Amino acid sequence: MLVAGEEFGQLEGAIRDMRVRCHELGKQMAAELEDLRNAKQLAISMLKAVPPSAVKVNRTNPKTPSKLVQSITVEPNTPFAQPIPGMAPVNDQEMDQVPKYLRGRLTRDRVNGAVEFLNRLLREKYTLLQQNPAKLSVEQRQRYYEWRDAEEPDELAGRAHISDADIKSALSKGSSNSFKMDPAGKSILAILRHLGRIKEVRSAMSTRYAINN
Predict the structure, then answer these.
(1) What separation in angstroms does the CA of 75 have from each of 72, 93, 130, 175, 211?
(2) How is domain 69-211 classified at the architecture level of CATH?
(3) pLDDT tens across 84-104, in order?
(4) For the whole model, what pTM was predicted?
(5) Where are the domains of the chain?
């Protein structure tokens, strides 16, 4: 009976060892599966890391330059560098054509300060979208996927744009001293719409401002 008891104890010990090994093997397999999923996602991201369709090269004939759109050139060392559409400054003649109820006390310099700020946001957004996500920081990668995977109305297809959330995020970081989303800032956006610089596209979730090219 003693021998049988010892054998039973050994059997229990062997079963416990098998359970521990199975548990460790399961954890190892789960970790390897997660690594495979991450590798797949990285591969997909790298394949998609090309200039987004929203970025168009300005192919306007240089002999007949557009009055409304200029190209913001990305730094030469930027991967997949392409010209990014941006707004041209407002001139005195255009400013004189703006109705007084829109212009108020706003000056051309004030409006062009906003143009410069919005162009900078466009440049930052589309320069980031032209990067390889695998080489970005965690914060940059998060913004990359937020912009790349955002649902957009059909009328924005192929058009460079920024959203009111992009503007507010930049302003919260103190990115501009010349533009705020206050009544004056909203008047500036209305002036830019009036002059054909931008198109406002509203949706249930946000308002986007597309560059007219």
Answers:
(1) 10, 32, 12, 20, 21
(2) Orthogonal Bundle (1.10)
(3) 778 999 999 999 999 999 999
(4) 0.60
(5) 69-211
